[in-house]
Structures are given as structure tokens and as C-alpha cells.
Design brief:
Structural class: alpha/beta
Number of strands: 14
Helix content: 40-55%
Strand order of the largest sheet: 4-3-5-14-6
Order of helices and strands: HHHEEHEHEEEEHEEEEHEHEEH
Low-confidence stretches: none
Distance between the termini: 54 Å
CATH class of the largest domain: Alpha Beta
Radius of gyration: 24 Å
CATH superfamily of the largest domain: Periplasmic binding protein-like II
CATH architecture of the largest domain: 3-Layer(aba) Sandwich
Shape: elongated
Length: 302
């Protein structure tokens, strides 16, 4: 049975990484070893799981079906081992977490630190990127994503964790020189700062009282994927910016920024937590999930 599980383990990694070479790099093993394990698995089952040539790597239909079962079995074994350890030791293990740069800097920083302080045996591997990662291929246990509309349907487990409303902000010095907008139409004459670097034109899609909506097109003086850069530009008086409220909380309290059109939202965003599967979740993954779900709303909602 040990040999079977080893074969399952190597086969699952080859499928998840999309090839023997990539799986070998991830596991620090020669691809010839992985190929040998997959071949003996195919011989034992009497079926072809992976169609491979020098130019092609394709998981067969039966290979896809077997992968799903093998992955579930591996998850259950890992969960069983972790469950036993939990009865003899304090919570321990490794969690791989993915989130955006802004969320890492302004929402999760203290939340993750507190969790690690409470559980000295835990390791958190944090993948910080503004691109959409593939949780299965990249081996991510938990991903946090901000979004306005519904997330695409997928096999991932999705759980809405918190609201994260976006507002318009500007510095008092900017408003003193350029004037304070009284209506959404007034924004058309103002300098804007845009989250995201493409396209070059910006648009504020505002939500107002009684479900009122208003869109304002603007040519931004600055486009950036980095919320910190945009916030500092707004503090410096370079224009009006739309950002999540929690990102600008400290500057609001210090008087460096003020809300523009305070009765209007720049976006009614949500933060959702995603996991590859609900089966076989390790205790450490479940613990971090519940910790984030309990604490994040207090950080992001205003």
C-alpha cells in the first residue's frame, strides 16, 4: 500500500504541474523517477493515464477520473495524520495562502501575525500577487479575492468573508485648490488617479442614495496596480482616487485624506475566501480559515 500511495502522490503532482519536468522541479526530484512511478501505476492498473510524447502531454479521460480519486485519497491521508497530531501536539503544519498586494499590506498583515503568535508550530507561506493564481496548479490552500460581481462558477469552495466598500478620496490641499465636488457631474473637471494600469482611461462607476448610479470617465494622471502608490499620490495632492476604505483609514484619521462625495460609493466590493476542496482539509487550514473569517470583517468594513 505504501508503494501505491507513493505512485498516487507522484502521479497527482505530475497532473497538477502539467508535466514531468515541472513536477520534478517542484519536488526536487528527477523526472525519470516520476515517469517510472507513473509507468508502474499504469502497469498495475492496466490503463494509460497520461499520453506522452516528446511534444505532447495529455491526461487521458480515465487518467482525469483516476486523478480525482487519487487526490481525494491523498487529502484524506494527510488530514488523518494531521488529526492524530492535533491530539498529541499543539496545532502545527504549513498553509499556503494567496492574496493581492493591497490585501496583504492593509488587511491581512496583523491578522496573519496574530495567528502565528497564537500557534508557534504553524508556518504560513504567503503568495502575494495581483494576478489570478490557479489554486490547484500552484498548490494554494486558501486564496482571498476582492470582487464586485459574482466570481466565476468553478469547482472551488467559495465563502464570502467581508464587505470592502471603495470610496473616493482626496487631500484637503487638492480640494482647496481644485474645489470640492458637490455632485458626480462635478468630477469631470477633476484630476483622477486610477487603480490598475490598463486601459489608460479611467472610469468611476458610482453608487448613490436610493440605488442611484453615475459613471464618470477621466484621463488619469497616474495608473498603478499598487494601492500604496496611489494613496501617497492622493495625499500629495495629485488628484482624486478610488480605493477601499480600509486602505485609507489611517490617513482619514490623520486628516491627510477626506472622503469626496461621502454619500456615494466607488464600488460595493466583497472579499471571498476560496479553497480547492472541502474534503480532507487539514486542521491548520481550517483554523486559519476560521481565524480570517472572524477577524477580516472588523478590518475592512467601514
Amino acid at each position: 500500500m505504501d508503494a501505491d500511495l507513493n505512485d498516487y502522490f507522484y502521479f497527482a503532482h505530475v497532473v497538477e504541474k502539467g508535466g514531468f519536468a515541472a513536477a520534478g522541479r517542484a519536488l526536487a526530484l528527477p523526472k525519470s523517477l516520476l515517469s517510472r512511478h507513473v509507468k508502474q501505476l499504469e502497469d498495475r492498473l492496466g490503463v494509460l493515464l497520461i499520453q506522452r510524447t516528446s511534444r505532447q502531454f495529455v491526461v487521458t479521460d480515465v487518467g482525469q477520473a483516476f486523478y480525482r480519486r487519487a487526490r481525494a485519497a491523498l487529502d484524506e491521508v494527510e488530514a488523518a495524520e494531521a488529526e492524530v497530531r492535533c491530539h498529541t501536539d499543539s496545532l502545527g503544519g504549513r498553509v499556503r495562502l494567496s492574496c493581492s498586494v493591497g490585501m496583504a499590506q492593509y488587511a491581512l498583515r496583523d491578522i496573519i501575525a496574530r495567528f502565528l503568535q497564537q500557534h508557534p508550530g504553524v508556518e504560513v507561506i504567503q503568495n502575494v500577487t495581483n494576478r489570478q493564481v490557479n489554486l490547484i496548479e500552484d498548490g494554494i490552500d486558501i486564496a482571498l479575492r476582492g470582487h464586485v460581481g459574482p466570481l466565476p462558477d468553478s469547482t472551488l469552495i467559495q465563502r464570502t468573508v467581508a464587505r470592502a466598500p471603495w470610496f473616493l478620496f482626496a487631500s484637503p490641499s487638492y480640494l482647496e485648490s481644485a474645489g470640492t465636488p458637490a455632485t458626480p457631474e462635478d468630477l469631470e473637471s477633476h484630476a483622477g488617479l486610477k487603480a490598475g494600469w490598463r486601459p489608460e482611461r479611467g472610469e468611476w462607476s458610482l453608487l448613490g442614495p436610493q440605488d442611484a448610479r453615475h459613471s464618470v470617465l477621466f484621463r488619469p494622471r497616474l495608473c498603478s496596480d499598487d494601492m500604496s502608490t496611489l494613496k501617497r499620490a492622493a495625499v500629495a495632492g495629485l488628484g482624486i482616487v478610488a480605493l477601499p476604505g480600509y486602505v485609507c483609514r489611517a490617513e482619514l484619521e490623520a486628516g491627510e485624506l477626506v472622503r469626496v462625495l461621502p454619500d456615494w460609493l466607488a464600488a460595493d466590493a466583497r472579499i471571498s475566501l476560496l479553497k480547492p476542496t472541502s474534503r480532507g482539509a487539514l486542521p491548520v487550514v481550517r483554523a486559519l480559515t476560521e481565524h480570517i473569517c472572524a477577524e477580516l470583517p472588523h478590518v475592512t468594513e467601514m
